[in-house]
Amino acid sequence: MHVVVNAATSADGKLSSRDRSQVAISGAEDFERVDELRASVDAVMVGVGTVLADDPSLTVKADDRVLEREARGDSPQPARVVADSRARTPPEAAVVDDSARTYVLVASDAPGDRRAQLRGDTTEVVEAGSERVDLAAGLDALESRGVADCMVEGGGELLFSLFDAGLVDELTVYVGSMLVGGRDAPTLVDGDGFTEPDFVDLALEDVSRVDDGVLLAYDVEN
Amino acid sequence: MHVVVNAATSADGKLSSRDRSQVAISGAEDFERVDELRASVDAVMVGVGTVLADDPSLTVKADDRVLEREARGDSPQPARVVADSRARTPPEAAVVDDSARTYVLVASDAPGDRRAQLRGDTTEVVEAGSERVDLAAGLDALESRGVADCMVEGGGELLFSLFDAGLVDELTVYVGSMLVGGRDAPTLVDGDGFTEPDFVDLALEDVSRVDDGVLLAYDVEN
Prior knowledge:
Structural class of chain A: alpha/beta
Number of helices of chain A: 6
Oligomer: homodimer
CATH class of chain A: Alpha Beta
CATH architecture of chain A: 3-Layer(aba) Sandwich
Number of domains of chain A: 1
Strand order of the largest sheet of chain A: 5-4-3-2-6-1-7-10-9
Strand content of chain A: 25-35%
Number of strands of chain A: 10
């Protein structure tokens, strides 16, 4: 599967502030770019931490992009994917509403009652891994359901796991012209972190000014 | 005083990895840029955490730049400044050797024996603040000693305190094409962090490719 990570950070690498509140990092031009990117893929993925913090719908917002998807024979909306080892996604979360198909990737240890609450006409609970979601197996399971490309929007814990497993092909980061600060604020790539010589090597493919910030596009050299 | 912060981070905003080991983020071209920047200022400043982790000398490396400084009537080397509330700089640290003048900014609570060990022909201990260094007072004390402009190289705790106090005029960040990751790894701006609406606003002045990364230059809108 082709995996593109897309995220917006402050100039000091933060996805949000220490209190996990959503920060308006990018502007209207970047919003359109992200909507276009969502419209171009089979699935949009986030970690459960992002669902709990921001309650995103992950849907394509522009009607013309939805119509273009239908015109080329795709579903109106890309599928949503939540990496959610313990099935903590609230049943009332926007990401599991009926506006698009949703796959919740859970570990086999995830409580059965919470899985049952999530299952529905448009939501499938997909098991991959035992204690934590095995992301490689999860992406394989999605691929067998017709997902050939996936855009991942965060957060930092999921991104670390994906990079650590060598599953990411491209990274685009919008760097907003602001500083958030905080040793405990979520960053683009959190998790345990890498140490020498296991840092992830990137190749800078494109640099462009967007809104009042800059968009950096990288290929990931796995 | 005119204060410029210059630092190198990974694409995920990290100054180093979780084990605090120094990470080679930039390359030869950026090294020359930083050496030139050091040669252009009256003082180069770091926090004591950076001294303890990296033992930097903070000196200008290129002989021709040293000669240029002397030719215009400056000291051969810019002064070094350590923000060091409790006087933890080791007396054997490179930053307090005799290759340049050094000011160690300490709080009045800092132990007298450690201050005494640091004092020397080229090292002055400057008191500013009681429990922690009062950076505004510290910069004023430096200004009265002839320091009109200062370049700050980190780390993230000092940078947070400087931005929090509104003391920074410019920020240049070299963003290396790599991911370091780690929720506990040092970032460009650590400390307690800012929350809405107190984020630091930046104005992106220049974007340029340097080595295999990108250099972002900002004005700070205090």
